[in-house]
Amino acid sequence: MYLIRHYLLTFSVVILLFLPVIAEAQTWDNLTQAQREALAPLSKEWNTLQTQQQQRLINLAKHYPQLDAVQKQRLHNRLEKWSKLTPEQRNHAREKFQAFSKIPLETREQVKQMIRQQDAQKLSIPAANPVLTNTP
Amino acid sequence: MKKEGLNHENIKQLLNHSVTQLERPTLTRLHHAREQAMARYSTRNTEPVFVRAGHAIWHAFGTQHKSRLWATTLLAAIILFSATAYWSQITKSDTTDVDIAILTGDLPMHFYVD
Predict the structure, then answer these.
(1) Do the domain assignments include residue A136?
(2) Which of A56, A135, B46, B74 sits at a 20 to 30 Å CA gap from B81?
(3) Which of A71, A74, A93 is facing B112, going by the closest CB pair?
(4) Does B9 touch chain A (CB under 8 A)?
């Protein structure tokens, strides 16, 4: 009984100490073919990413097969820039997205339309008005 | 004065002298008891380091039942708190739905980032 109690105590301490290590880092080679396809733009810097970020991206890759071709393309185009953002910037983007999702649909569509127009203008007249490019 | 004269050497001599006066069966029993005690000691010494560390921590809380009970409760509370905090962080950090919406949505990413 005495020994069992000690083993239990020691086991608990060990579990407690190793709890954060449970989610261990994954190397690029350890990823599945599907995950590598989804996260292809990050192949070079994958091993330098933090464990938590890797885990988030792996979760993201689970959705990849359900995306249509346009969405897959967008994901690949944006993934590299996304991974280079600081955690604070990503959190800020998430908050902004959630706030934007709460706006009435009609207003949202107007904003989207406005942004599309702005982007189209930027593409047609590159750097024509640098002051305007920085306005939200 | 007599107390000063009773050093380790005297005690050893006294014990050795007493042993010679003991009966053979008593000596055998004592020898057997000593061997058993030594065997237990060597078994304890072969325990892994972390088990011995556990013993040390356990004994650090004193021999009173109450303090050990407190130590166990405290440890259980710490484990429970850590586990809850860990799982809460995991749940909180599961932002996959939002991330996928930002990364695949029809609005450019800079709209959310800038």
Answers:
(1) no
(2) A56
(3) A93
(4) no
